[in-house]
Design goal:
Length: 119
């Protein structure tokens, strides 16, 4: 699935239109439709969209390999896990860059799914 498809799918699951997602993310109401035409958002924009939808950037990009058994609560738990850990990490007392945070989130997502299994 493409980025556009993933945004559209999650928005539908949340009962949101693409226009309302865009506005809540601080974008013009039709900008998300451009992603279906090959336009790529900035990392900051993508993070804002993911935040509105309650998922991770990796989830929207199809990079988190969410297990088939995972439900909405699991996805929400993952988001909280990442926000409470990756966003507050520093290196040598300096905040991580957005790119470093995203790389860290990818690694943490893999660890989360490996440890967060249903009985």
């Amino acid at each position: 699935m493409t980025l556009f498809d993933n945004i559209k799918k999650v928005a539908k699951e949340r009962g949101l239109s693409l226009q309302s997602v865009a506005v809540k993310a601080g974008l013009s109401k039709n900008v998300i439709y451009q992603y279906n035409k090959g336009v790529n958002p900035s990392l900051e924009t993508l993070a804002n969209i993911a935040n509105v939808l309650g998922v991770t950037v990796d989830y929207l990009l199809g990079k988190n390999d969410t297990p088939e058994w995972a439900n909405d609560q699991d996805t929400h738990d993952l988001k909280e896990f990442l926000e409470s850990n990756a966003d507050s990490m520093t290196y040598g007392g300096d905040d991580l860059t957005q790119e470093e945070k995203e790389k860290l989130k990818i690694a943490m997502t893999q660890i989360f799914w490996n440890r967060h299994k249903h009985d």
